Give the backbone structure.
Amino acid sequence: MAKHTWDRKAGERTSVDDLYLKILSAKDIEGITILGGEPLEQAPALLLLLKKIKETPLSIILFTGYQLKQVVDEVQKQVMGLCDVVIDGPYIKDETDFSRPLIGSKNQQVHLISERYTLSELLSSRNKVEIRVSNEGGVKINGMLQDSLLAILQKEFSSI
């Protein structure tokens, strides 16, 4: 669970245009993944960004703690309509399940919004972990990993 993403006072502010340019400058990416905190809490700005992304060949995957049937806000619905894949439902630690790619807990569901991917394509991929080490020595670990294995990685990288 990415609790560090929940603090509304943390992070840095950026404009939609600056974020869009940063995404376009990324090398060798297939698409973008939107997750949070809760991305739909910033639906108006996210809608502007996704409209720009839709003009590119990039795919869009959105993780939301809401279930699709709970979303009644029109702007949030528009955001989800621009996505290729929506994974809905809150991550529930007691229901952790890494047997399905992209999904962290048993209650979460994959919804194909566009025809870009098939369910079998998405579910045939494997959960991966990305480790980034900055020039300053900072380490960021991103992905889906059991807590015990994550603790081992964190311990190993903390000694660098």
